[in-house]
Amino acid sequence: MTRRKRIVEIKIQNTLFPNKSIGEYEGNIIMFKGGIKGQKVRVRLGRRKKGYIEGKLLEVLERSPLEKNISCKHIEACGGCTYQTLFYEDELSLKEEQVLDLFKKESIRDFNYLGIEASPRVEGYRNKMEYTFGDEVKGGPLVLGLHRRGRFYEIVDTSGCNIADEDFSLIRCAVMKHFRELGIPHYNKRTHKGILRHLVIRKALSTGEIMINLATTSQGKIDVDGFIKELLGIEGLEGAIVGILHTINDGLADMVKADELHLLYGRDYIVEEIHNLKFKISPFSFFQTNTFGAERLYSIVRDFIRDKKSNIIYDLYSGTGTIAQILSPVCKKVTGIEIVREAVEVARENARLNDLNNVEFIAGDVLTEVDRLNKKPDIVIIDPPRDGIHPKAINKIIDFNPKTFIYVSCNPVTLVRDLKVLIERGYSIDMVKLMDMFPRTPHVETVALMTR
CA–CA separation, 235 vs 166, rounded Å? Predict the structure, then answer.
């Protein structure tokens, strides 16, 4: 292949998790991010890797036979979703195929596959949206929305976004209009000048409580009273605004973090309810973005455990302790370990809120804390970050030698890698079930039950 043939047209032969496509050109395997199996696309070729050439998707020339649905007007522009052109049933089948292919590739067989469970909501399911201030074209009017697909500097006005709660759309539009009229500039990621950066909205879907966090630089002041008045004057909200916050962020990274955090109105948390338990959610604490999907995910974990009051459970990578607290009624004791100290404090506070006395939370690295636990668990729950279990920690975890492991994974690529180690150490996979927590995106949760 000559170097002049940098842009080529190919047909996508397969789509791999997560959101990777494969095609072929002149006998070479081309791999790139984005796309759907069956599409004809234009790709810019990049570096040659071991066994394939890296590419970048430039344009979809012909849609896939799978693409029978146009459910969002921002399909071409917005980078927030991947599968808006698929009927939901086809999306579930595609995700299922991708995950099972990973198991087959690693020769992991002989388990009871329980299928994929659909999200209770497909539209308006997100309980958190992080919007960015910017412009759609250089020098254009202020926009508040999501990043344009494949672009770092351009923002799309995502009016009518169908995965966000309708209250989010009303708030987003009101805030965009408010700052447009005031003429306050957005933060320019090229020059690092400007004021407005992000707007984060969180809503407890079971209670309707809404928390709004405006992120700006310290390069200028905003009229706090006017901003509060604008938000509280929005008509038609189904939920209720219980907290308004202002984050000062002068960092260069395009992310929401707080150099300073100011409470402008109400309180700095919302309360969500799952399985009759209450969970406080603060501005920066982790909580699954699909409330009703999370309820089903945790139900799957509880079903795998069954109700046995004598069980001692370790919940590793426990986050804000949601799984541990939901399991507390069906076991003797749950111990959670989480490296993020703030998350552990939230978990402890929520346990007190729910009057649970058989759960405890330890702040520390799983890699070191597992050495300090002295009670033998009956069940170990593993819910690690996307990178999976640290290679140095996995054998220490297996050394607990519980009867049962339950692995909850947001990344089946690292899941199958870790399952192979568990199998090599004498465990067998009993059941696997998928839970679609993220409709219209390429992501899916997997729950695996392993026993010795």
Answer: 12
Half-sphere exposure of 394 (CA within 13 A, CB side): 19
Cα 257 to the center of its chain, rounded Å: 17
SS (H, E, C) 5-21: CCEEEEECCEEECCCEE
| For the chain, percent of residues with pLDDT exceeding 90 | 84
What integer pLDDT is reported at residue 87 of this predicted model?
Answer: 95
Q: How does 64-91 read in b/e, with b if 16+ C-beta sit within 10 Å? A: bebbeeebbebbebbebbbbbbbebebb
Amino acid at 29: I
C-alpha–C-alpha distance, residues 442 and 96, integer Å? 11
Q: What stretches in the chain show pLDDT beneath 70? A: 1-5
pLDDT of residue 23: 96
- Residues 47 and 53 sit within 8 Å (Cβ to Cβ): yes
The DSSP call for residue 328 is G
Q: For each of the domains in the chain, give its residue range(s) and CATH number, in order of start.
A: 7-62 (2.40.50.140), 91-121+290-451 (3.40.50.150), 128-274 (2.40.50.1070)
CB-count exposure of residue 356 (10 Å: 0-12, 13-18, 19+): middle
* Four-residue CA torsion sign, 393, 395, 399, 404: positive
Q: What is the CA radius of gyration of the chain?
A: 23
Q: Which two tokens stand for residue 282?
A: 């603060």
Q: What are phi and psi of 56, to 5 degrees?
A: -130, 125
215-224 burial, b at 16+ Cβ within 10 Å, e below that, comes to bbbeeeebee
Residues 212 and 392: their CA atoms lie apart, in Å, by 40
CA–CA gap between residue 280 and residue 364 (Å, rounded): 21
Helix (H, G, I), strand (E, B) or coil at 427: coil
Closest CA to 384 of 318, 451, 325, 321: 318
Query: Residue 377 carries which DSSP code?
Result: P
- 337 contacts 316 by C-beta, under 8 angstroms: yes
pLDDT in tens, 420-452: 999 999 999 999 999 999 999 999 999 999 999
The residues assigned a catalytic role are 410
Q: What is the pLDDT of residues 61-85, one digit of tens each?
A: 999 999 998 888 888 888 789 999 9
